[in-house]
Amino acid sequence: MIAEQLIGPDIAFDEPWQAEAFATAVQLSRSGVFTWSEWVAQFSTTIAREPQRDGESIGDAYYRQWMTALEALLATSLCLSGQTVTARQAAWHAAYLSTPHGQPVALSNAVQTDDDHEHDGHHHHAHHHHHSHDGATMRPVPRPVAVVPARR
């Protein structure tokens, strides 16, 4: 299999996310979401349609094209709408921002329930109770401010 030939000790990635993107495509192909031939066709089409941009490194262009191809193939293979993908990306981004440093990112961190709330004027104190929450009582987790040193 071609995918097997691409995996080896000589592969180098500039960033960890590039390795994850690569491994994701290989694993999705192995698990039958799409064939490697379908992947190659989609990736080739994407490269032709979206060539390297001015000032963009070859590596950056390659993985931009890789991600674009992967998103397109998943949309086709899994019948995902752009709106669904955008909503899920936003949820994962919120989960990432809300996860304490050093902890695994979990999608459940994207939203939290407001269990300490009032009900239409009664009980003016916080209390914990259990009942269903709809979209009106769910609120996004506040986004922390992150300071990252400049990259060179």
UniProtKB/TrEMBL annotation:
InterPro entries per record: CN_hydtase_beta-like_N (IPR049054), CN_hydtase_beta_C (IPR042262), Elect_transpt_acc-like_dom_sf (IPR008990), Nitrile_Hydratase_acc_put (IPR023808)
Gene3D superfamilies membership: Nitrile hydratase, beta subunit
Domain Nitrile hydratase beta subunit-like N-terminal, residue spans: 12-101
Region (Disordered): 113-140
Ranges annotated as biased composition (Basic residues): 122-132
Name the record gives this protein: Nitrile hydratase accessory protein
Organism: Paraburkholderia silvatlantica
